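Here's what a typical entry looks like (Flavin-dependent dehydrogenase):
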Amino acid sequence: MKEHFDIAIAGGGLAGLCLSIQLARAGYKVLLCEKESYPFHKVCGEYIAIESWGFLEALGVPLVDLRLPIISKLQISDCNGRLLKHDLFPGGFGISRYTLDATLATIAKNSNVTLLEKNKVIDITYELNKHAFKTANGNFTATVVCGSWGKRSNLDQKLNRPFVQLNPNKSSHYIAVKYHIETSFPDDLIELHNFNNGYCGISKVDKDRFCLCYLTTALNLQQNHNNIQKLEENILTKNPQLHKYFNYSRFLYDSPLAISQLNFAPKEIINDHIFMIGDAGGLITPLCGNGMSMAMHASKFLAEIVNEFLKKRITRDQAERLYQETWHHHFNKRLKAGRMFQGLFGKPSVTNAAVGILRKFPSLTNKLVRLTHGNTF
Ligand SMILES: Cc1cc2nc3c(=O)[nH]c(=O)nc-3n(C[C@H](O)[C@H](O)[C@H](O)COP(=O)(O)OP(=O)(O)OC[C@H]3O[C@@H](n4cnc5c(N)ncnc54)[C@H](O)[C@@H]3O)c2cc1C
């Protein structure tokens, strides 16, 4: 007999961890499988919109004790380094994924989640009202399965999801690179610097470190001999603002942390009765700085819907429909805004004109910032 769980979750990033804690605290038997082992670094800008503060505290993350930087100012430069300065309202805070995910993993274990690290989920199939959940270290069954495996995973291929079938066009596929650095930079500021075909963010996280993270097209990297250092020397540092950070900071990793094959095409929220959550359900462009808040917010309403289903107050069909409707209601506008902003960033003539216009119309900048942030949940 395979061990049976009320809920099995594939992927222990923010979405999977937050969901597992809420459902375990509601009294369910929860399995969470993560292919890595905590703590570990992750490519992410590590700026969290303030809307998530109360939610993380309620889960038990000691945000105040961690003495995190509160970020309330924004600076954007065009490809020539010309700056737009603006207040960032409602703003956010900085915390590394190394610290945050590991803290949530400890909370999950203390909340009775069966958290299996270094355990990749290999296949998920649905039959007769339950799922078979096949992992590297054992097979299980579950009444509900949630997919929180992030941007792209082996399971997307297994499920034949349409976004993985997209022709890998090198200018619509992106790569992202992240470093932790020590540098001279204010605690309350986030900067976004444009360069040819990409942009780079920098802001403070915990432990007096700064996160420097950029996104660019796969084509840009290819044109620089698939060499990250050459890409930085030839393209990024042409922006004088970035030149400063790349030349006068201490880089704390031995080598850059990089991911590839990112695309922002829409995804399905339900696949073969699996509830997709976080980046597995839809990837917002990083410059909006809101993917993490969306992952956490979705975990909150999905936990409520799963609870209704497991209590047999709604059918599986109704639960799936309700989840899709709630997801679209909360996130559609933000995802559309993200795709629109992506078009304004990283193309020198468009970016330079956009930054020029926004410098003249601060109220327009306010509106755009507001579009990328959500409300407290
Ligand atoms: C360049 C860049 C910068 C960003 N900057 C920001 C920012 O500043 N602020 C913000 O709010 N958002 C930002 N985001 C978005 C944010 O990182 C994501 O939205 C967020 O991490 C989503 O969380 P998740 O739990 O869905 O996925 P993840 O955090 O990616 O977690 C998925 C987990 O699943 C695991 N996994 C994958 N496959 C399997 C498998 N088969 N079995 C078991 N485990 C598996 C992975 O190891 C991983 O731990 C950025 C994204 C990018 C690309």
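The pocket of flavin-adenine dinucleotide is lined by residues 10-16, 33-36, 42-48, 120-121, 148-150, 153-155, 176, 213, 215, 262, 278-280, 286, 289-293, 295 (CB under 6 Å).

More examples are in the samples folder.
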